[in-house]
Amino acid sequence: MLDVSLRELEYVVALHDERNFTRAARHLHMAQPALSQAIIRLERRLGVSLFNRTSRSVVPTSAGNALAEDARGIIDQVRVAVARATASSTQRAITVHVSEPALETPRRVMAELRAALPNLSVHMTAMPVFADPEQAPQLSLTIGHPQRQPGYGHIVLRAERVGALMSTKHALSQRRSVVADDLERHLVVSIDAQHSQWNRWIERWAASHGRCPRWTTSAVFGIVAGSDVAADGASLFVCLESVATDVENSLTWRPLAPTVSASWYLNWSHAHADSPELQDCISAILSHAELYGWVDDGVSTGQ
After folding, report:
1. SS3 of 43-88
2. What is the DSSP letter of 8?
């Protein structure tokens, strides 16, 4: 019969980490004398000395090191078991904000989440602003820039080549590529700034080459609307290469030169960092990205 409680294992691990009764007691939210007596009682029951005490330090014995090492694994297993039990008794759900939801990358990401996590309710939203932090999404997928809302971390998920979609009758359709100067000489389809920051991305790229895009007077949102405008034979719809596979044959896509790519960012809320649902989603998405070679070395940063 076991003669050690889980709480006593927590005492051993805390004292092993802190090497000081006062700090360990503070970590455990208990009085220092109570912790000292609990360790003494445990040592008596086990018949071994777990810690050597002096007036200045607490040093684990070989028995103390062995028990602390195994105790950590036991405590972690209990936490996982409790989390699984809790999750199984409640509806698992997560909210995912997706910018440009009609594009290939978010469609594949959302499909992967539903396939990999069939018991998770995935609520997708394209709303860009959340006034109530409690209603903000735990996870988001954005193109061209990371999530700017405070309290988010991010990782580069995928990079896609950027180019211009145009009518086969457009003056540039026979060219092999589109340069920054072309965005100043020809109309560029303007994307609704309330739903997307894509125009800002284009402006930054053009500005890096000393140019300023000449926007259409009307603004649109989405692949279909952008393609419809580009079909006029006069406008360029700057977009990702994957967009070209979703449009009619009457349009053609030419890469920007010099070659440039736009990054998809996977963003997560620090407030929900310990959520099993969030961790499951991130793991599934990154596994999908690795499988298809989307990213070589994503660098995680904090917002």
Report:
1. HHHHCCCCEEECCCCEEECHHHHHHHHHHHHHHHHHHHHHHHHHHH
2. H
Query: pLDDT for 102-113, tens place per residue?
Result: 889 999 999 999
Q: How far apart are CA 229 and CA 57, in angstroms?
A: 75
How does pLDDT run across 175-200, given as a tens digit for each residue? 999 999 999 999 999 998 877 889 99
- CA 107 to mean position of chain CA atoms: 16
What letter represents residue 147's amino acid?
Answer: Q
Is 2 exposed, middle or buried (CB count within 10 Å of its CB: 0-12, 13-18, 19+)? exposed
Please state whether the predicted TM-score (pTM) of the whole model is above 0.70. no
Please report the sign of the dihedral spanned by the C-alpha atoms of residue 202, residue 207, residue 209, residue 211. Answer: positive
For residue 100, the tally of other CB atoms under 10 A from its CB is: 25
N-terminal to C-terminal alpha carbon distance within the chain: 50
The upper half-sphere exposure of residue 159, i.e. CA atoms within 13 Å in the direction of its Cβ, equals 8
Residue where the block lists tokens 């040093």:
59
Q: Which two tokens stand for residue 39?
A: 């360790």
3-state secondary structure 248-290: CCCEEEEEEECCCEEEEEEEEEHHHCCCHHHHHHHHHHHHHHH
Q: Which residues of 236-245 are buried (b: 16+ CB within 10 A; e: fewer)?
A: bbbbbbbbee
Query: What are the structural domains of the chain?
Result: 6-88 (1.10.10.10), 92-303 (3.40.190.290)
The pLDDT-based confidence of 86 (bands split at 50, 70, 90) is low
